[in-house]
Amino acid sequence: MKPIVDMHTHTFISVCSHDETANVQNFIDKAAEVGIQVLGITNHCWDSRMPGASPWYAKQDIAWVKQIEKELPVDTKGIKLYIGIESEYCGMSDTLGISAEGAAQFDYVLIPHTHTHMKNFVMPRDPIYNQTAGVVEERMRAAFPEVSDRQIEKWMSMNRAADLEVIMGGKPEPDYPFLADFLCKSFVGLLNNEEFQKVLQTVPAIVAHPFNAVGYTLEQKGKMLELISDEKFIEMFTLMAEKGVGYDISVTNFKIEDPENCQMFRIIKLAKKCGVKFIFGTDTHSVAGLKNASRSTQIFELAGFDKEDLHPLCRDFVK
Ligand SMILES: [Zn+2]
Ligand SMILES: [Zn+2]
Questions:
Q1: How far is the CA of 122 from the centre of ligand 1 (A)?
Q2: In order of start, what are the domains of the chain with their CATH numbers?
């Protein structure tokens, strides 16, 4: 069995896609070329029924992502096509970006708990960043004695992590225990979120790229996961399986050439043991990125999966 599945993709409707050719027809054409058997399109979406959208999300409401319906081709070239969304879960405030009513308008929903690049929205700044910001703020006060404290604070609030790195001469090491703790709390927080229970009654729900802290390198992600024990993962994945929540394997985050030293392989094997069901996704934002979908076959084999480990949404369509 060689499943080639890509159920996490973004077209140009997602405002972070910069590929103007990323439309459904071009995705189908490329998917057929790559041999993809199941394709799911999951643009970013925040349901306006749910309070708390960031300015970036506010525009990408249900009506916005529904524009995709105008693009649906008649011929899907034998590929099973789903239209889903990738919504949001903000662990720091226990806020979900999709209501059950909104979710009902799609084939499935992906919900990430690890958009850890969205600071002060999905997760708080880590203590090391705050220290760094404190040093930069002091230097700014010294450099601009004539500028008011209020103005300096305003400047600081506009700084991104990358700006601070320039001033500090490099990236500070992340606070790994802080991040590992956040990953676990936000995962369990999502599974137990009140609105999420209603979503689960409505459509298949899948955690987008679990435990994959966006904005950090693969090495850094590995260091966070090393701090989480097998027992802790088993406890969390047992809850996931009990609730029937699926797992989105983010194929570009796996070290296929060195699976023994890849934390992502360790955790999907634990999830499999707990009875969790999986999909695969490239999380591409361009047509070209669909080529990575072939990695799903390799991960399926290296993790020792069989057909029963696949989520019902893709199980019956893979070969
Ligand atoms: Zn994501
Ligand atoms: Zn995505």
A1: 12
A2: 5-118+176-315 (3.20.20.140), 127-168 (no CATH)
